[in-house]
Amino acid sequence: MDEKSSVGKKTQGTSTFTLEEACDVEKNIGRQRSDLSEMHTPLLRIKTGRSYNAFAHEDADLFPDGGWRAWIVVLGSAIGLMTVFGVMQTISSIQVYIQKNMLKDVKISSTSWIFSVYMFCNLSVGIIAGPLFDLYGIKRVLIPGILLNCGGLYGTAFCSKLSHFIISFGLASGIGSGLMMNPLMSVISHWFLKKRGLANGFAQAGSVAGIFFPMMLRSLYPKLGYSKTMCILASVCVALCLISFCLVKDRRFVIADQEKIKERSLWQNIMAVLDFRSFKEKPFALLVGGLFFNEFSLLLVITYIGTYAETRGMSESDAYVLVAVMNSAGVVGKVVPNYFSDIIGRFNVIVLISLSMALSIFVLWLPYYNNVALYIFTCVYGFGYAGSYSMTPVTISQISLTRQFGSRYATAYFIVAFGNLISMPIGSQFINAQTVHNYNNMIIFAGCTTLVATTFFILSRTAIVGKRLIKFV
């Protein structure tokens, strides 16, 4: 060994460091201190700014990103989500009927609690469904979800009072669909990484049920009556759930840290999910803010577009068709934005979608030119709101480790759920008298909340890559 090398050696115990290695360590420390674009959080460590890489935090070798088994899971997820998104998008058709019949003497602001409780339970139950999914796998979580979701629909068929509807539809179906939605969406992340946007879009195309369910109700209400029609809807959901149950499969033993999960009790896993330290990460906090305000607009439009159409002179039958048209556009909105999100970036797409929704409200809906313009609005908005729903999991997953996705998705929607709980009671206060002027006030409120949501989405994107417009993010 020459003298130069021996001078650069320092021995401590059994470890030996050369002078060159020490210099490399110092250089690395210096780079870390000077890199102001690097963001540290308790949950995730990613690079932002010019060096941002959307997939750098994952081991791509763990994900099949295709293959017959992976796409079978996507199919199973889509079929299961038909019972979740399909019923969710049929809310307006249910609301129109019960408001004019069983609850005709109840204020519209009071009946709004049925659907706000449903949406609150649907989203907030994710804090339980996420840990259950991580701990027990998808099938054990789907069983109680299916029983509550479909059982609640059967119960709704025989409701006659406001309290009955809140318990059967709001609580039972809401909790059941919440137990189903989180695992059915999270399982896609176990199989896909770079094609996750496309796979998620196909899975959420299960919202195609939102076309057929309203039309089915429109056709069967006059022939069979309310109770038998709702029983048929519940039976269709049972059949779809059973098919989905047979097709889906998780990969939690490959993706998740099972030893760490099993060391904790269920309550500890739930508390680990609801970790508000996530909000120390600016992109995540701003994204959740955008989702929160976005829900104000979404729930008001999909619930009251039918009664608004009747106020404008449409028949009840045509109002159901209007809902079906909006949901038809939503099927395309679940797939197309996800396809382009894999090409131009997930945050880029959700910003464009949210902006289009705001413009459609102020340019097409509020002025109300004629019924044709109203149909155009439902197409544009239906495409947008479905796209925003489908882009939510892929935007969250882009700034999350796959093993953390279920938890962070549940945490985000636990906060967003409170927006659902209050949005309809607040928005429905504008339309108790159900006049055109009242509805215009609600439309302005919905449009403003969408603009606020768009601003938050832009700020979240900016927190990741700054003001760079041409960047995959």
Q: Secondary-structure element sequence?
A: HEEHEEHHHHHHHHHHHHHHHHHH
Could you tell me the number of beta strands?
A: 4
Q: Within the CATH hierarchy, at the fold level, what is the topology of the largest domain?
A: Growth Hormone, Chain: A
* Range of helix content: over 70%
| CATH architecture classification name of the largest domain | Up-down Bundle
Biggest pleated-sheet summary: 2 strands, antiparallel
Shape, please? globular
Strand order of the largest sheet: 1-2
Quick recap of the structure?
The protein has 473 residues and is mostly helical.
What does the model show?
The chain crosses the membrane at residues 68-91, 112-133, 162-185, 197-217, 229-248, 284-307, 319-340, 347-366, 372-391, 412-431, 443-464. Residues 72-473 form the Major facilitator superfamily (MFS) profile domain. It is a single chain. This protein has 473 residues and is mostly helical. It folds into two domains: 3-51, no CATH class; 60-465, Up-down Bundle (Growth Hormone, Chain: A), CATH 1.20.1250.20. Helix content is 75%, strand content 3%. It is built from 20 helices and four strands. A hairpin with a 4-residue loop joins strand 3 and strand 4 (45-47). It is globular. It starts with a helix and ends in an 8-residue tail after the last helix.
